[in-house]
Design a protein that fits this description.
- The chain is of the alpha+beta class.
- About 30% of the residues lie in helices and about 40% in strands.
- The chain is built from four helices and eight strands; from the N terminus they run E-E-H-H-E-E-E-H-E-H-E-E.
- The two termini are about 20 Å apart.
């Protein structure tokens, strides 16, 4: 899976693929860079160890193999620039197996170029092909993250609820929006 992206003065090939064990170092560096950025993700300055990321990656690879998860990496050449995943909800055992959560992130220097939308479309399509029995995909988004909210609406998600002041972001409590999309 690949697309050409016009990046101001040059065109760079962006590819999407499943993660492999040998991606561990880049994945650890990537999540720690995003955490330090204090953007709209769960991590806010925490440092993830290589061991923690190895455990996470091992778990995800098992879930991918058993058709419970999908994860795609976005690469510019050999450099990891984004990650998107759709993860089956197993909290309520089989009662919620038909639902899965979308998570997506993109390195700062690649935002606003259409790569995030393409990555989201790729991972959603792959999830609908690969996760058995999937009927809906949901996500949460910080209410102040207007760009992401608009992108998710464009992708067919609709707002189904808000949790007031659920997220502490840069010293302020902001609403978390819950969005859902039926599988096609």
């Amino acid at each position: 899976m690949g697309i050409g992206i016009d990046m101001t003065n040059f065109t760079q090939e962006i590819t999407f693929r499943y993660p492999k064990p040998e991606d561990l170092d880049q994945m650890t560096e990537y999540i720690n860079r995003l955490s330090q950025e204090n953007t709209y993700i769960r991590f806010s300055g925490e440092e993830i160890t290589k061991e923690e990321e190895a455990s996470f990656l091992e778990d995800v690879l098992k879930k991918i193999e058993s058709h419970n998860d999908v994860m795609l990496l976005a690469l510019a050449g050999e450099n990891l620039i984004g990650i998107a995943g759709v993860h089956r909800n197993t909290v309520n055992k089989k009662r919620s197996y038909h639902a899965a959560e979308l998570g997506i992130s993109l390195a700062a220097e690649y935002r606003g170029r259409g790569i995030g939308e393409r990555l989201a479309r790729e991972v959603l399509a792959e999830a609908e092909r690969s996760i058995t029995g999937l009927r809906m995909i949901y996500l949460t988004v910080f209410a102040i993250n207007k760009g992401a909210f608009e992108l998710y609406k464009k992708l067919g998600f609709r707002e189904v609820g808000r949790i007031p002041e659920f997220i502490l972001h840069n010293g302020e409590y902001v609403d978390e929006i819950v969005m859902v999309r039926k599988c096609l």
